[in-house]
Predict the 3D structure of the following.
Amino acid sequence: MKDELSNRLTKAPVVPLIGENDPARAVATANALAEGGLSVIEVVMRSDDAQRGMEAIIQQTNGLLVGAGTVLTLDQAKSVLDSGAQFIVCPGLVDEIVTYCLDNDVPIYPGTMTAGEVQRAYALGLREVKFFPASLAGGVPMLKALSSVFREMRFMPTGGVSAANLAEFLALPSVLACGGSWLTPKDAVEAGDYATVTRLASEAVAIAKTAR
């Protein structure tokens, strides 16, 4: 799974976030993103029914790699994995979640924003982490500073990433991919305007090709 995930992110290094309680809208959003060229999806567990949306995407779409984001506890990690999540993303670094995922060969991207957190992730055996919240944590200059010290680490900046600064982040060799919710605007999804989602995904793919 990790190799397939890495291969897809090499081709299209953008991970869109879906936060949708309604399973039908979640599936339609995921399909719209896939039509735009993005096949790695993070469904954020920020509401009571988000996991149902993730389950619907996994069951009703083909060819997507679907992960669970905003995972806060080990029990929650186990639950979303039981529901079919293929990777885990956390807003912060929790040792027991990282250890469980590593022991079970589950790709995991815990959130880091300081040198201490990155070093702790490195000591746990990780070489890829989330950088969150990217814009508030220092953005590109901070990533350059961290990358000069942690030369083996690769980062997935999320939080404040948009079409306007995507190329700047992706130009850094240490950036594995960028995550963001700008690709799935709430008003467009609620209005059923999935053409906008597809357009934003296609735009992100084009920016990534130019940056890389």
The first strand starts at residue 14 and ends at 18. The radius of gyration is 16 Å. The chain has a mean pLDDT of 97. The chain has ten helices and nine strands.
